[in-house]
Amino acid sequence: MQQRIELAKRLLKKADTSIANVALSCGFNSQSHLGKYFRAMTGMTPKAYRQNK
């Protein structure tokens, strides 16, 4: 799971990729599924991470 979240972090830094596409690219079933695990492991949502990086 950690590797999938790290991949999501790298993809989120690219502004042209939607969060939904990031989720699918990392093997999550949906954007909300990514959000659940991303928040648990990083303490922030994917959108907040993108805005802060």
Automatic annotation (TrEMBL):
Q: Does the keyword Transcription apply?
A: yes
This protein's source sits in the domain of life called Bacteria
| Coiled-coil features, chain-numbered ranges | none
Record-annotated HTH araC/xylS-type domain positions = 1-52
Q: Name one GO molecular function term.
A: sequence-specific DNA binding
The residues the entry assigns to the signal sequence are none
InterPro entries hit by this protein:
Homeodomain-like_sf, HTH_AraC, HTH_AraC-typ_CS, Tscrpt_reg_AraC-type_HTH
The UniProt keyword set, sorted, is: DNA-binding, Transcription, Transcription regulation
PANTHER family given for it?
ARAC-FAMILY TRANSCRIPTIONAL REGULATOR (PTHR43280), HTH-TYPE TRANSCRIPTIONAL REGULATOR EXSA (PTHR43280:SF2)
This chain's protein is named HTH araC/xylS-type domain-containing protein
Highest classification ranks of the organism: Bacteria, Bacillati, Cyanobacteriota, Cyanophyceae, Pleurocapsales
